[in-house]
Every structure is written in structure tokens, then in C-alpha cells.
Structure to design on (426 residues):
């Protein structure tokens, strides 16, 4: 982005001022847009922009892609979970993108999706990698046009995106109710007004059978005791979410939802695996506890039936896995037709968090975004990206006004965490 010749006479300051004139009484709305355009270094007309290469790096759980162009600007994106072993898939997508104009984000997404109908483009690794690539295209388009991604997505409903703190208690082997209370108190002291706890414990000694998914009476009581301790610690006005990671059966899902009703949860997440949406509906219909799912559903197609039959109360797509930012917005808008809130799952780095935040800002039915407590304790997360603003203020992320996503990959900082024996940005 070194060249400073004007790229876009069509979005000159004068043109923007003229477009904004009727809205003048609404003051600051549009200022971000104008500043972003003013502050963007220009190279040449957007129509001359071409993709020249795509490179990637892997750390535990995350794939980072970087798309390069003929104008010394690049875009960064991240995919999660379904990404191990996908290096050659990234390279394959890259070959399909070379020479193309990155500004046609929806079209490039659709080209790759359609060309993969017989290669698994419906879900899994294919879509997770596509999510990373699509996100990088938005970042690139934003940098090329001088606009933050939320603006490319149609503008924002809010400047700040509310987040909940995942307490990551799964890092303890068998957390006791007092550990739940401690983690809850700590998250509240850090300023979070919403938090999440995991209830599934594979090593629970009260489990009779490792493969059967029915919780024993003692397991059920353990769950109730843990979440009761958390609720007692933070009081009635903090939102509490509970995740079962799809590791129980429908009868247990119904029992847990019923037993936790007095604790007024924000939601109970994935009590059963993702595949059978009719089983979700059984649970949802049986309880006043809101039921949430979506981190193992892919593309807007994956959410159609879930929403159509009212199988869940809240959807939680993972935007680094379910298809990217445009697809995330489509899922949110689909959910909005059913008055279902949108609460994205997020286990990526701060790059993924901010990418998700742009989508969360752009839709009316956004409820809350996931945030990780380990961002505050594991130095890796600060080392692998560059960002000069504050990450989170109490329970809110301020959506970046910089062109693109606003967060960069730090390849130097990431190098030492790279998965061995996989090419790293090469
Ligand atoms: Mg979950």
C-alpha cells in the first residue's frame, strides 16, 4: 500500500459529502466512511486489481491465509477447527483465484463453492478453508476501497459488539462447583457481563459407560451444582451460557435443560450432536431454557431446516468455519426472518474475533459474540497479530474503522507456533 496516487475519483471526499448532505442532522454517521477513504493510500483503479498468490500458515486450531495482489496490498483471513491437513486445498483454491479481481467477493466465493459440489463443498474442511479465503477477500477489498468490512457489508447497526467470556474451565480435569464460582467471579471482575461454562466432562467418575450418552443421576446433579455455584457467585443480572459440546443424548438434553430452568440461562448449547435437527426440536419444545446450536453447521443451507422447524432458539454459526463473513451475514439474515438471534461461536485469534465483529455490527439480530479468557493469559494471541487499538473493554469490542478487517497477521510472531512439517507462508 505504498503508492499514494488517487485510486478512486468516484469516491472523492466531495462525492461523499454530497451523498451525506441529506443526513447532516444525524451528524457522525458516515464520518467513519469519509475518514477511511481519506486515509487510504491509493494505487490504481480497482478494476486493475488482480490476485497474484495465496499463502498460508497453521498454528494449533487455526489456518491463516494471506492473499496477495499486483498492487502491494493483501488480505488476511482465518479458518478454524476443520482445517488440519488442508495446505494443498488452500493452494488449490489459490490457483483458482490467481488473475481474478478480489473485489468480486461473493462471486469468487460462489465460484469456489460451486466448483466443489463433488469435492465436499457442502461442509467440513472445504468450507472452513473457503471461510478463511473469503474473509481474506473482504479484508483485501476493504483495503483496496479504503473501507472497513462492516461498511462493505452494508454499514453497521452498532459501533460496539457485545462479547461473552468463555471461561475455558475445560482446562481443569474435573472442575468442582467452587472452580465454577471462582471463574465466574473472575470474569465478572474483568468486566464481562456474560460468560460461558462447559458441562461435558468425559472423565466424570459418575459416568457408567464411555460410549452411551445418557448422563447418570450423579452426573446430572454435578452439572446442576456447578452452574448453580456460578449463578450464585455472579448474581441474577449476568448472562450465563452453558455448553454440552454435543456429547449427550436427547433424553439427557431435555433433563439438563429442565433442571437448569430456575437458573435463567442465556442458552444451553449443543446438548446433542449437530446432525439431527428434529431431535433438537424435541429438546427446544420441552423447556423454557433457550437452546442454541450452529457451530457444527455449515453454510446458510445448513441453517435452513434448523430455522424452518424451530429446532433452536438461538443460532451460533462459527464464521471462521461456516462459510466466512458474507455467509455469516446471510445466516444472520435468514435467522432474522424467524426472529431468532445470532450469536456467533468464535475460537479463532483476534483477527477472527474482529472479522466476526464486522458481521455482528452489520445485522439487526446480533445478540452476542464469543470471546476467550485465554486471550488474556496466553501470550501467543498477542504475538500472532498486530493491532494498535484495545482488544476488549469490559464486555465490548469496538468495531475497527480501518480499511479491511483492521487486524493484521504477524508472520514473524506466529512462526514459533507454526505446526511442524507444514509449509509456513511459503
Ligand atoms: Mg460450543
Amino acid at each position: 500500500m505504498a503508492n499514494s496516487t488517487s485510486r478512486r475519483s468516484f469516491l472523492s471526499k466531495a462525492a461523499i459529502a454530497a451523498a451525506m448532505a441529506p443526513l447532516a442532522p444525524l451528524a457522525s454517521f458516515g464520518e467513519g466512511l469519509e475518514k477511511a477513504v481519506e486515509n487510504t493510500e491509493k494505487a490504481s483503479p480497482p478494476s486493475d486489481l488482480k490476485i497474484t498468490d495465496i499463502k498460508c500458515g497453521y498454528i494449533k486450531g487455526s489456518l491463516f491465509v494471506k492473499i496477495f495482489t499486483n498492487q502491494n496490498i493483501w488480505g488476511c483471513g482465518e479458518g478454524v477447527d476443520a482445517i488440519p491437513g488442508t495446505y494443498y486445498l488452500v493452494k488449490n483454491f489459490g490457483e483458482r483465484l490467481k488473475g481474478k479481481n478480489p473485489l468480486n467477493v461473493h462471486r469468487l466465493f460462489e465460484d469456489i463453492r460451486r466448483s466443489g459440489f463433488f469435492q465436499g463443498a457442502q461442509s467440513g474442511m472445504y468450507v472452513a478453508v473457503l471461510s478463511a479465503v473469503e474473509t481474506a477477500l473482504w479484508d483485501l477489498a476493504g483495503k483496496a476501497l479504503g473501507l472497513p468490512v462492516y461498511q462493505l457489508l452494508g454499514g453497521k447497526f452498532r459501533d460496539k459488539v457485545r462479547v461473552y467470556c468463555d471461561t475455558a474451565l475445560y482446562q481443569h480435569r474435573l472442575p468442582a462447583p467452587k472452580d465454577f464460582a471462582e471463574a465466574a467471579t473472575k470474569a465478572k471482575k474483568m468486566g464481562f457481563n456474560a460468560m460461558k461454562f462447559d458441562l461435558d466432562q468425559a472423565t466424570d467418575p459418575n459416568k457408567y459407560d464411555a460410549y452411551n450418552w445418557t448422563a447418570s443421576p450423579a452426573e446430572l446433579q454435578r452439572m446442576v451444582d456447578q452452574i448453580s455455584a456460578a449463578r450464585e457467585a455472579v448474581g441474577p443480572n449476568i448472562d450465563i451460557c452453558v455448553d454440552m459440546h454435543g456429547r449427550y443424548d436427547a433424553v439427557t438434553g431435555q433433563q439438563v435443560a429442565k433442571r437448569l430452568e430456575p437458573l435463567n440461562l442465556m442458552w444451553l448449547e449443543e446438548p446433542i450432536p449437530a446432525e439431527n435437527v428434529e431431535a433438537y426440536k424435541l429438546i427446544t419444545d420441552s423447556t423454557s431454557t433457550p437452546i442454541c446450536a450452529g457451530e457444527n453447521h455449515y453454510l446458510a443451507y445448513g441453517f435452513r431446516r434448523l430455522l424452518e422447524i424451530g429446532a433452536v432458539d438461538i443460532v451460533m454459526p462459527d464464521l471462521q468455519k461456516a462459510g466466512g463473513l458474507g455467509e455469516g451475514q446471510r445466516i444472520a439474515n435468514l435467522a432474522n426472518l424467524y426472529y431468532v438471534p445470532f450469536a456467533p461461536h468464535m475460537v479463532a485469534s483476534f483477527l477472527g474475533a474482529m472479522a466476526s465483529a464486522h458481521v455482528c455490527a452489520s445485522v439487526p439480530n446480533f445478540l452476542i459474540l464469543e470471546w476467550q479468557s485465554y486471550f488474556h493469559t496466553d501470550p501467543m494471541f498477542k504475538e500472532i497479530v498486530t493491532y494498535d487499538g484495545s482488544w476488549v473493554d469490559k464486555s465490548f469490542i469496538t468495531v475497527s474503522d480501518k480499511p479491511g478487517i483492521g487486524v493484521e497477521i504477524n508472520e514473524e510472531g506466529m512462526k514459533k507456533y507454526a505446526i511442524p512439517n507444514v509449509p509456513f507462508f511459503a
